[in-house]
Every structure is written in structure tokens, then in C-alpha cells.
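Pipeline run #58 for the internal structure catalog. This entry was flagged by the ingest filter as a single-chain record with no existing model, so it goes straight to prediction. Upstream metadata was stripped on purpose; only the residue string is passed forward. Reviewer on rotation: M.T. Logging verbosity set to normal.
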Amino acid sequence: MASAVNPIGQSSTVMAGRPLHLHADRFFDSDPAIRNVARALYEETRDLPLVCPHGHVDPSLLAENAPFPEPSALLIIPDHYIFRMLHSQGVRMEDVGVPTRDGSAVETDPRIIWQRVADFWYLFRGTPSGAWLAHELHDVFGVRERLDSDSAQRIYDEIAEKLTSPEFLPRALFEQFRIEMLATTDSAVDSLPHHQKIRSSSWSYGRQRVIPSFRPDTLFRIAQHAAWSKEVRALEVVTSESITSCDALLSALAERRQFFLSMGATATDHGVMEPYTAELSPADAERLFQRALSGEATPADQRQFEAHMLMQMARMSVEDGLVMQLHPGSLRDHNQAMFEHFGPDKGADIPLATEYTRNLRPLLNRFGSNPRFRMVLFTLDESTYSRELAPLAGHYPALRLGPPWWFHDSIEGNRRYREQVSETAGIYNTAGFNDDTRAFCSIPARHDLARRMDANWIGGLVARHIVDMDDARDMARALAVDLARETYRFPTPPA
């Protein structure tokens, strides 16, 4: 045995060569009546294809199909769940290789980064991040040792060697993971060159496998003048139009949506602090747009403009059929110093209490019963599950509830979601599962955890004689693949 002392003084005892063993019944209930049914349902769904309708994988990964450089770049650097936990315990972001905005020095030796994360891996005990990485190491890379201070370099060498083989190229892993469809998330002004390269490659087999999603958020944030103006100029370039009015902005957005549709997109995505919706008169919308052009738009102006633009996006979804995803309730970049030094998406986004019933009423009153409209609604506020979201989804035909998101895409988060949503909304007003990840190799781990937790929840219904086994099998398959296909209007592949 060896004793490791990390930089903040936490001593941990490390047993050399401890085996990494993933128990077949992990996450299942201890009650045998539930566990036995859960095991049977999981065995029927574990090898079904992975339908991935919302995520943040970089499409260049699959367009270039180049070997992954080394384990830290693949498994550590893209995963903000890892470095936000380390930061909470005093580990400097620079010391785990997170690049800075000003180009100041950060750790660049991947072995040192890997070792530093391994030294602190005890922090992830009982967390979904710990469960996901254990699954990646065991099932994707065949590692049979637990990650800790002593095993870190052996595991690094084992993974690094495998990354040099053709079986671990991105497209080969895509096949190994059984991914049926993967949607990325892309700026409205993106010309999608990587998607075009994938579409024209022989790997696509003449069918869509990787598709974009249309995200226009920056174009709605008129109080952030520098970023907004830059995005408007980029939109003018890609549309070859001068955008000097709100009507011109809407026309350009409609044109870009058609381009994304031509590239296989089936959905839009909108991240907002609150799901406030309201329709302005053309004159009021134009007034706000002109204030934005002059750099005078205030946060109050932005709130009204975003509310109006969400209504316009819903209207366009009725016209062009793109599914509208809404991700509200995150106060982005809560840590101002971290944002200024490292930029966005560094684990400092914090959930807010969120109200849906009043905020969405204008949009749902106008479009919620339209058969051509579909909205997938997410939340970071679990208190709204049974009070607001389930009743809304249980009434409006256009509304589907997205799966537990971000901090709640977890073992207990999945359980709470099913228990609070399903009695009112059922499962067929939910959108199945999506992984919402940047970390490509975590995709199968996230689906596996969700399928296990869904099997366990359904197993409880069977054990209490609420549903029978035939219904349970249908429900498990629906939650694993069918609901995601139907919600996002993906084609069902031939058997």
C-alpha cells in the first residue's frame, strides 16, 4: 500500500493494482423483486442503438477521423464536470491544462495532467462523473485497474497505446458505440464545413449519421453589444444580406434555418436564463433592434427581445418543422474572474429557480396545440417537475419534457425525474434520453446509466403490480430509443 498526499493536504491510501470491476447489477434496487425485473429489462435494452439528438461533440472529430492525441486531451480536457470539481477543492485550472484567454502558461504535459486528476479522483466517489469514467475505462478501453495515484501512469500507457490503433479512431468508436444518429449544436452563422465533409464521405453510406442543430442564442442577446454586433456581421456574411432592421434579421434567420434543414438538421436549440415569452408589435420589436444597433440596448430590452424572438422561432418551427429545444435556468459564468481568465463553459454555470407556467403561456397558447409544432423543454429546477412541467406536458400536445439535464443527469436525478413526472405526464410526453455531452467517449456511459435507472424504475412498477411485464418491455424500449426518434423526427432505420 502507498500513501499519496495531494496539494491541498488530503491524504489518501492507495492500494496498488486494485481491480476495476463494474458489478452487473450496479444502480439496481436491493429489493430482489425489483432488481430481477430491472436486470431483465436492462438486458433487453443495453445493446439497442444509441440515439443522440442533443449534444456538443465537435463535428470535426468525425470529419477528420484523426487519431486522438493522447488520454488527457480525450478524457479530461473536454469534461467540465471534472475540472469544476477539482476547482472546488482548490486545484488550479491551469494545472489541469485548461487554456487561458490571454495565452498565459498552463500545464501542457499530458502525463502530469493525468496524474494530477488521478491524485484527486477520490473526489468523484458517488458522482455520475465517477460512474461515467469507470464505464469508459472498463467498457471502451478494457482497463481493469481502478484509477488512482499508483495506477495512473499504467492506465495512461494502456489507453495511449490503444489510441494508436485503427479500432480507436473516432469513426470506429462511433460504430463500436452503436450510435444511430448524432446531433451536434452549431451557431446559426456556421457554414457547417465539417458536416459537409462527413456527408460527402464514403463513411456516411449515403445516409445521415451526424447532423447539426441550429442555435441562434447570440443573435438575441442585444445587451451584449460587442458579441451581438460581431454575430450580426457574421450573419450578413453568410447570407450576403444587409441586416439593418428586425425584419431583415428574421428573414436571415429563416434562410439559415433552411440551410440547416438542407444539412439534415431536425431541431433548434435555445439557451435562456428564463423561459419568458411575449410577442411584441412590429414597431416595438424594431425599436429594440435599433437600440441594439446603436449599442444602447439594456438588459431589460434584451429580456423583451429574447421573449419576442422565442415566439418568432416557434412560428418558424410551425412553418419549417424544426423541433424547438428550450434550455432555461442557468446563470452563465457565475464566477466572473474565471470567465475573464478562461472564458465560457468552464464549469461555473449555476442553476436558478425557474418559473414556466406564466412565462410560457403566450407561446403555448398560440402554438401549443398546433400539430406542426413540437417543443422539448428542459429544466435545472427540479422543484418544477411535478408542479409545472408534468402538468404542462400532460396537456399541450406540442410539448415534450427533455430528460434530466446537466447537474441532474445522474443516478438519483434520473430516479427523481421519473417519480415526479410520470404519474401526470406519463412517459410518452417525454423525449427519451439525450447525452448532452462534449466528451465523445462518455456517450455510451451516459446512455448505459440512463437505461439502468429507467429499467430500475420500471422494475419497481412491475414489482408493485402497476404494469405487467409486457408493458414494461414496451416502456423500456421507448425510453431507450423510440421516444428520442419520434420526438426529434428521426427516421427509423430498417431492421
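catalog note: The radius of gyration is 23 Å.
catalog note: The first strand starts at residue 2 and ends at 5.
status: ready for reviewer M.T.
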